[in-house]
Design a protein that fits this description.
single chain; about 550 residues; alpha/beta; Rossmann fold; L-fucose Isomerase, Chain A, domain 3; 2 domains; six-stranded antiparallel β-barrel; six-stranded mixed β-sheet; globular
Length: about 550
Amino acid sequence: MKFPNLPINQPRCTGCDISRRSILAAGFAAGCAACLGDLSPFKNSAIGQGTSEKVRIRLLFANDWRFSDDGAIITSAGWPYVGYDYRPIQAETLAALRDGCRNMEFVFSFANTPEQTQEIISADSAAENDPANRIDGYIVVTGGILDAINPVLDTGKPAILSDFLYTGTLGFVTFTAGLIRAGKPNFAYMSSNRLEDLVAAASCFPIAKGPGGNKAFVDAVAKVRRDIVAGVRVDMKCTEDTLDILSTDDLLKELKTKKILAYEGTSPEFIAASKETLGIEVLNRPFTELNDLWDKADKNRAQEILNKWKKETVSIVDVPDEVLEASARMYLAMKQALQNHNACGITVNCLGGFYGKHIFAYPCLGFHELLNEGLIGACECDVVSTLTMVVMTTLTKGRPGFISDPVLDVSTKQIIYAHCVAGNKVFGPQGPTNPFMIMTHSEDRQGASVRSILPLGYMTTSLEMQPERKEIVFHQAKAVANSTEDRACRTKLCAVPVGDYEKLFTEWDRWGWHRVTYYGDLKEAVFAFAHALGWKVITEA
């Protein structure tokens, strides 16, 4: 059985009045000339003319070491993907701000290192008493995980941290949560796929010059966010989903029989806490063991699995048979490792292993296959997520978890769960299948990974379990769309959270980026599990 109607969101313009198409119609060089001037020599020259009475804002694209020296091109693997050209979005962002905030001036700059950020801020400080060149506030757009927002906030000027979705989200969510927790008085933020929402936030800068100062500015930007979210209407009634779950007592007994393999990088503290609190054994294993199993995997059996994938998938995009064969052998290696150690779950430092040439195939397709079998395959040697998946898959009698890097989009009131691994039997091994595609791993455009077109209309439960702190972070959301946006990971499930959307910005500094999503309304079972253990549940929406 297959799900018949699974709509996919198509990539769209950010929605501003100045479209990407119009800016680039005559080629990027013309667009840059009109919107940015000459970017290559620039860095800090003012864009546009105006009187000294105008509020002047620095638009700072905060990149990181992965960028070329001119702040334009991603030169190595990472979000959104290697080779991505930032110049169009830089031009589009500046054009939208200039058009939407005509009473303001904008100064464009980028920084690839903390030193470059400090140089820019030092130059601004030197011009503090020059009305024509004084900077009154900052917009920092995250193009990576570079910490540019903290030194900007140290100036005391009002500042907006903005996420360019599917690109600098890790830096955005972690810094935002930490700064909210710290109560920075001049910190505001925006996370939207529409440039007009950033323009609306930027229009609040003049408020900081009024009697309310920075607090009035921050409150005004928060109201912009809340009003955008409040304007999104979604029918939250969900498709019926019959759950068959273990009792809490049976779950706690069953967990004492579970074992996780971690290749490589687990801390002794986590291993001890997992065993002490849940009875789950975690074994830290070397890459050499997994690589040896991969090297010895039966190539005839691998060919059978390759043929199975080719038969089942909707399409294969840019992945040759030899890569599929290597992926099939990785699946066989992981399956053999689980059998050798009598384990139910495996997590691999896939990025470090692949880039460091410790392993020679991404485990994404192998994880996909394991998840469909009711076993656990988890990314990036993330033992917190792996443990969470062991608990929840045991609880739900085989439903697979979807580990992801979530993205927040206030324009749609959505949280988008993005990763290059997902099963296509979200209701368990005996349940219906949904379509999936085989594509390259998104960040480096190599290997093989999965885009699973996940079923819509259902309630989902997302969480992480931390045995060292004896805490669970938890939220729920209705699955509403699948995104095919080319930036970032291949599978992107869009969902509308239950509860207070603003709270979703607050826990990433303590919990990290990953969340694990399960189909089903599992709130009662999760809270009962936490109560039985004496753990705390942190509801993040």
